[in-house]
Amino acid sequence: MAPEKPDGITLGLERITRFLEQVLPTDPRAQLRVVHVAGTNGKGSVCALVSTALIAAGYRVGTFNSPHFLEPNDAVRLQGVPIPKDEYQRLRQWIEELDTQALAEHGRLSQFEQTTALALWWFAQSSVDIAVVEVGLGGQRDATNVFGAADGQRGVGRSLVQCICPVDEDHLGLIGNNVEEIAREKAGIMRPGSWIVIANQDRSEAFHKIRQVAHRVSPGRIINVRRQPTYDIHVPNFAIAE
Question: Which of 2, 34, 83, 232 is the most exposed place for a label (fewest CB within 10 A)?
Fold first, then answer.
């Protein structure tokens, strides 16, 4: 893989994974449980709703959105409050210095990869109970797709729930050449043994591809939400396991 410029877009997990595993003092993923949100439309709203519900339920919640809303620091939140600007700038400079010193064979981290590493580090240092993480671009090869399975046995960190919001034609040619390919890319965040929530899909080809992948990855743990809701399972009581 050719090195990328820090502000370029080259999808892949080599750089961010190596940085988390080998460059940071400790890998923050080991302390994190995650709700991961992908899709074309509605990701930010879903992250806000899920974060608010978890906070109301008594959990300590970190939220990472992409892109930011008004200021760069508001992409990274604890209990709904953005990381302080001075703390954000301090961590950003620290991440950049570590990245420069590492001289990785796969090239420098992108700006988004730096922000992802910053968010995960701050969440771990803040001892969050759960991190709600919005995918930046696509899913399978996105820098946020670095968490292991829900059982904690496969990979680092635990992705407990994956939500796939409505999928449409976005970033054609970069993450797929049609809706079905784009849906497959976004479904790449799914993990075995996790709960998978499929939002109402206006594009039938997206729905069928997402559901196909979900049944292969985590059968029996799929919540399919439609305008007239039908469910592949019934979940009478759902809580985040300790």
Answer: 2
Instruction: State the number of CA atoms in the 13 A half-sphere of 159 facing the CB.
Output: 25
Which residues have C-beta within 8 Å of that of residue 33, sequence separation ≥ 6?
129, 130, 131, 157, 158, 160, 240
In 3D space, the residue among 116, 104, 118, 119 whose CA is nearest the CA of residue 141 turns out to be: 116
d(CA 91, CA 178): 38
13 neighbors 148 (Cβ within 8 angstroms):
no
Q: Residue 69: which of 54, 50, 58, 82 has the closest Cα?
A: 82
Helix ranges (H only) for the chain are 14-18, 43-56, 85-102, 111-125, 179-186, 204-217
Task: Of 17, 108, 9, 150, give the one whose Cα is nearest residue 66.
Answer: 9
Q: What is the pLDDT of residues 138-150, one digit of tens each?
A: 999 999 999 999 8
Q: Is the pLDDT of residue 78 over 70?
A: yes
CB atoms closer than 10 angstroms to residue 233: 11
Neighbours of 152 (CB within 10 A): 14
Kindly state the tokens that stand for 7: 């502000």
- Residue 11, both tokens: 């999808």
